[in-house]
């Protein structure tokens, strides 16, 4: 090896040793002080924004997108299915629920209109009575469905498979509606009052 090449290698080795020494002298980062939350300790969010819970609705009678059991169909027991919910937003003063079928030949067909549900309530039991005002459930009110009756009337599709949406609305104001209101009146009353909504869908075939 020539003298010039050897000198060059010695120079590179010296520079490398100098860099290693400098890096080795860097102080170690201090651990975060108490009260500071590092990213890995942040709780998972339950909604789309930090601090905002996502309202959800469930049923023990069916899963999302599954067939509604016959006992909830109009030609059988015609019972309203049990429903539960969670995650109401702050400021909810009342809940409303609408069940409808968007696949009906005449357009959206409303099967159930119910409002005046207390925000303290977390469920509706199976078989809610069909009277316009249900005293046993906190005087909640029910509207007139598209069969012309009060309360719930279940699926009765003329043919094929239809979808049935149960939509729960968290309201920041109470609905000023008398029992027996129809779908058009209820939807109009909801305008500007909805804080959040959740839905679950079931199907039913003729």
Q: Can you describe this structure?
A:
The protein is an alpha+beta fold and 206 residues long. It has one domain (57-205): PEBP-like (Phosphatidylethanolamine-binding Protein), CATH 3.90.280. It has two helices and nine strands. It has helices at 3-24, 183-190; strands at 56-58, 83-86, 94-101, 109-117, 123-124, 133-134, 140-142, 161-171, 194-205. A hairpin with a 5-residue loop joins strand 6 and strand 7. It is globular and about 40 Å long.
Largest beta-sheet details: 6 strands, antiparallel
Which word captures the global form?
globular
Number of structurally distinct domains: 1
As a percent range, the share of strand residues is 25-35%
Total count of helical runs of at least 4 residues: 2
CATH architectural category: Alpha-Beta Complex
Average pLDDT taken over every residue: 83
Give the helix proportion (percent range): 10-25%
Structural class of the helices, strands and pairings? Answer: alpha+beta
Question: How many beta-strand runs?
Answer: 9
User: Briefly, what CATH class?
Assistant: Alpha Beta
Report the CATH superfamily.
PEBP-like
Adjacency order of strands in the biggest sheet? 6-7-4-3-8-9
Rg over CA atoms: 31 Å
Cα distance spanning the termini:
93 Å
How would you concisely characterize the structure shown here?
By secondary structure, the chain is an alpha+beta fold.
Could you outline the blueprint of secondary structure elements for this entry?
Blueprint: H1 3-24, E1 56-58, E2 83-86, E3 94-101, E4 109-117, E5 123-124, E6 133-134, E7 140-142, E8 161-171, H2 183-190, E9 194-205
Antiparallel strand pairs: 1-2, 2-5, 3-4, 3-8, 4-7, 6-7, 8-9
């Amino acid at each position: 090896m020539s003298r010039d090449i050897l000198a060059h290698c010695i120079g590179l080795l010296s520079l490398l040793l100098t860099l290693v020494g400098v890096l080795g002298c860097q102080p170690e980062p201090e651990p975060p002080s108490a009260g500071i939350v590092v990213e890995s300790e942040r709780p998972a969010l339950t909604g789309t924004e930090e601090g905002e819970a996502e309202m959800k609705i469930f049923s023990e009678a069916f899963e999302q997108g599954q067939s509604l059991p016959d006992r909830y169909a109009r030609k059988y027991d015609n019972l309203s299915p049990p429903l539960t919910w969670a995650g109401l937003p702050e400021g909810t003063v009342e809940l409303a629920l609408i069940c409808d079928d968007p696949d009906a030949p005449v357009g959206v067909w409303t099967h159930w209109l119910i409002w005046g549900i207390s925000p303290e309530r977390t469920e509706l039991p199976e078989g809610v009575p069909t009277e316009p005002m249900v005293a046993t459930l906190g005087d909640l009110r029910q509207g007139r469905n598209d069969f012309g009756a009060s309360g719930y009337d279940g699926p009765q599709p003329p043919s094929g498979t239809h979808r049935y949406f149960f939509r729960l609305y968290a309201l920041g104001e109470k609905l000023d509606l008398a029992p027996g209101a129809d779908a058009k009146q209820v939807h109009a009353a909801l305008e500007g009052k909805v804080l959040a909504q959740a839905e679950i869908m079931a199907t039913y075939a003729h």
